[in-house]
Amino acid sequence: MTIRATTAWNNQPLILYHGTIKSSVPLWFVRQTPDADDFWMLIESCRRFGATNRGDACWYDVVAGPVARSFKMRTAHRGYDQISFHTDKAVAILDNSFKYEV
After folding, report:
1. Residues in contact with 84: Cβ distance below 8 Å, sequence separation at least 6, in sequence order
2. Is residue 20 part of a domain?
3. pLDDT truncated to tens, each residue of the chain (102 aa)?
4. Staple partner for 85: which of 23, 64, 90, 98, CB 3.0–4.6 Å?
5. Containing structural domain, residue 43
């Protein structure tokens, strides 16, 4: 599986191969419906407290899923997904990946 996204800083594509991410602890969200409590609890934790993992435990390195609009109203932007890197191990995936211009 290939993940292709556009980076925010230079509008260049970022291509990550599943084999690169599978060595980390990923967390994948598909549902952004109001009853998807696990997704909305993560969003609230990140936005209100700046905490990307729960307490001192490091439960995941990479998170992929919908882009939340409002955690209070439990709404997401339609048609958009994101990938976020939450640990030094995950950031190393980006730092050590092959870089080329497309």
Report:
1. 52, 62, 63, 64
2. yes
3. 444 444 444 555 555 555 556 556 778 888 889 999 988 988 888 888 776 655 566 677 888 899 999 989 999 998 888 888 878 888 887 787 777 666
4. 90
5. 2-95
